[in-house]
Amino acid sequence: MNGSLHSSSNVVDIKLKRGPAGLGFNIVGGVDQQYVVNDSGIYVSKIKEDGAAGLDGRLQEGDKILAINGIMLADRTHKAAVELFRTAGEDVELRVLKKFPPHMNGPSGSQPEQQSPVSLWGILAALAGAAALFSFLYIRHTKKHF
């Protein structure tokens, strides 16, 4: 593979050694069951903590697998992709797009990050504290001592 399909720095090659329980992750997607709107790619749906991928730590839920052992996964059915993973051998090289897609058809393992209301309250409290300190210093400075 020459990498011309995705020249982004988000594309990485990950080598895994198949363990007793396989590679340790589940996939979704394919031309017959799109997981991402207008994208028939193969995506990682679940990482098993004690599996090969979980112990390695580089593959994450939501990553798009572009190829396995140099075989592109584009335009394949889900079943065909699963068969490629099952017959890939002990040493497996994955080409992965490290980008969580914004438009999912199905449920995902993580929720979108939301800004915590605590941070807004923290800012407001800091501003109120600064205003109180300023007021105290101003009154103390302008107050006449007898």
Automatic annotation (TrEMBL):
<dbReference type="GO" id="GO:0043113">
    <property type="term" value="P:receptor clustering"/>
</dbReference>
<dbReference type="GO" id="GO:0005741">
    <property type="term" value="C:mitochondrial outer membrane"/>
</dbReference>
<dbReference type="GO" id="GO:0030054">
    <property type="term" value="C:cell junction"/>
</dbReference>
<keyword id="KW-0496">Mitochondrion</keyword>
<dbReference type="GO" id="GO:0097120">
    <property type="term" value="P:receptor localization to synapse"/>
</dbReference>
<dbReference type="InterPro" id="IPR001478">
    <property type="entry name" value="PDZ"/>
</dbReference>
<keyword id="KW-0472">Membrane</keyword>
<dbReference type="InterPro" id="IPR036034">
    <property type="entry name" value="PDZ_sf"/>
</dbReference>
<dbReference type="InterPro" id="IPR050614">
    <property type="entry name" value="Synaptic_Scaffolding_LAP-MAGUK"/>
</dbReference>
<comment type="subunit">
    <text>Binds (via the PDZ domain) to isoform 2A of SYNJ2 (via the unique motif in the C-terminus). Interacts (via C-terminus) with RALBP1. Interacts (via PDZ domain) with ACVR2A (via C-terminus) and ACVR2B (via C-terminus). Forms a ternary complex with ACVR2A and RALBP1. Interacts with MAPK12. Interacts with DLL1; enhances DLL1 protein stability, and promotes notch signaling in endothelial cells.</text>
</comment>
<dbReference type="GO" id="GO:0045197">
    <property type="term" value="P:establishment or maintenance of epithelial cell apical/basal polarity"/>
</dbReference>
<keyword id="KW-1133">Transmembrane helix</keyword>
<dbReference type="GO" id="GO:0019901">
    <property type="term" value="F:protein kinase binding"/>
</dbReference>
<keyword id="KW-1000">Mitochondrion outer membrane</keyword>
<feature type="domain" description="PDZ">
    <location>
        <begin position="13"/>
        <end position="100"/>
    </location>
</feature>
<keyword id="KW-0812">Transmembrane</keyword>
<protein>
    <recommendedName>
        <fullName>Synaptojanin-2-binding protein</fullName>
    </recommendedName>
</protein>
<dbReference type="Pfam" id="PF00595">
    <property type="entry name" value="PDZ"/>
</dbReference>
<feature type="transmembrane region" description="Helical">
    <location>
        <begin position="118"/>
        <end position="139"/>
    </location>
</feature>
<dbReference type="GO" id="GO:0016323">
    <property type="term" value="C:basolateral plasma membrane"/>
</dbReference>
<dbReference type="GO" id="GO:0098609">
    <property type="term" value="P:cell-cell adhesion"/>
</dbReference>
